[in-house]
Amino acid sequence: MMSSSAFSTVFVILSLLFTTVLGLRFDLQSGHTKCITEDIKINSLSVGKYNIVGPSEEHHSPDSHKITARITSPYGNSLHHADNVESGNFAFTSTEAGDFFACFWAPEHKPAATITVEFDWKTGVAAKDWSNVAKKGKIDVMELELRKLEDTIKSIHEEMFYLREREEEMQDLNRTTTSRMALLTGLSFFVCVSVAGLQLWHLKTFFERKKIL
Question: How distant is the alpha carbon of residue 17 from its chain centre?
Answer without folding.
Answer: 16
